[in-house]
Amino acid sequence: MTTTAAARTTDETVDAFFAAFGAGDSEALLGQFADTVDFRVSGAPNVPWAGSRSTKAEIAEFFGLFPQLLSGPESFEITTRISQGQDAVVIADCVFEVTATQKKFHNRYALHFTVVEGRIARYHMYEDSYAIHEAFTA
């Protein structure tokens, strides 16, 4: 991990993102994002949060889906974080349950953040969309 000022800013922003997400603080969470974001989550068509977004309103809708569709995480652990300059990649493991089907899914995913001037300008998520698709299938 680098110790440059840019890496510290990136790390601090990523830390603030996860703190706000974990606390369910949507205002603080949205405050971590730039006004326009390259925001992408690839996935199966029946995964409600898959797709591209760019505005804070669209990002707020994205994060608002989770409490509507999923039970709280059964487990969540960040296993790896690599930061260099404006970029950080976080690898995490989590287990959630889809409330409509009562099916659980294990998701090991990677998040690629790019932080510009202390705000998240890129958020690309790479997750096991097949496992999530299966959990949404009745």
TrEMBL record:
Signal peptide: none annotated. PANTHER family: BLR2505 PROTEIN. This is SnoaL-like domain-containing protein. It comes from the Bacteria. Pfam families: SnoaL_2. Residues 14-123 form the SnoaL-like domain.
